Amino acid sequence: MNAINEPGVREVIFMTSAQIGKTEIINNICGYFIHQDPAPILLIQPTLELAETWSKDRLTPMLRDTEVLSDLVRDPRARDSGNTLLYKRFPGGHLTMAGANSPASLASRPVRIVLLDEEDRYPNSAGAEGDPGSLAEKRSTTFWNRLLLTASTIPEKRELLNFVFANLQLDGATLCYTLRKPFDKMLEGANCLDWRNRRDSNPRPPD
Question: Are 42 and 51 in contact, with CB atoms under 8 Å apart?
C-alpha cells in the first residue's frame, strides 16, 4: 500500500496465496485514488463477467458504506450520474472496469492507473489484439506519474517454484534469466557469474 504513492515508483507487483486479502488491497487502492489522488483508473479482471461481479460484490458496497467515497461517486440510479456497472465517475477522474477477454473494453481512453487483478488467469491474447496486460499498460504511457499494479494468486508453492524455474536457464556457472512477467523488473539484467560463491546477505544467527 505504501509503494503506490511513493515518488518514482511506476510498477508494483505482488504474488500471494489465495484468500489472504489481495482483492481488499485493490479495493483500498481504488478508494485511495478516488479520495486522495483522483485520476483515470483502469481495473482489469480475467473476464468481463468477473469485472461485473467485482463491481457488484466488492466495489459497490465499499462506495456505499464509506462516507468520503459515497460523496464522490454518485449512485448509478441517480439522475445524470453518468455511472454504470463498469464505469464510475468522480471529481478529477473515473474508474473503468474491463475484462482481459474483451478487446473492446481494453481499447479506450488513456488512463494513469492500471490495476491488473489475477493476471495469471488472463488469456494469452485479447482476441487478435495481443497480450491483455501489455495492451492495458500502453494506455498509461502518456502519463509521467503513471502506475501499473499487477496482482497474481499462486495457490500452491509447487506451482510458484515451477513458474520460477520455467524462466531460469543454467549455463555452467552463469545464471541467465528469460525476461517474463512478473519477474522481469525484479531480475532485469541478472547475469551473476559468481552466484555460487556469494555470501549469504541474511545469515542464520548462531545457536
Answer: no
Specify the CATH number of the domain 2-153: 3.40.50.300
How many whole angstroms from its chain centre is CA 118? 8
Among 133, 112, 137, 115, smallest CA distance to 124 is for 133
Q: Determine the average pLDDT of the residues in 131-146.
A: 87
Range 30-46 average pLDDT: 94
Task: Report the C-alpha gap between 22 and 136 in whole angstroms.
Answer: 20
Q: What is the DSSP letter of 199?
A: P
Q: What is the pLDDT of residue 203?
A: 54
189 CB-near residues (< 8 Å, 6+ apart): none
Which DSSP symbol is given to 58? I
Q: How confident is the model at residue 138 (pLDDT cuts 50, 70, 90)?
A: confident
Put simply, whether the predicted model's pTM sits higher than 0.85 gets the answer no
Q: Where are the domains of the chain?
A: 2-153, 157-190
What residue has cell string 520460477?
Answer: 164
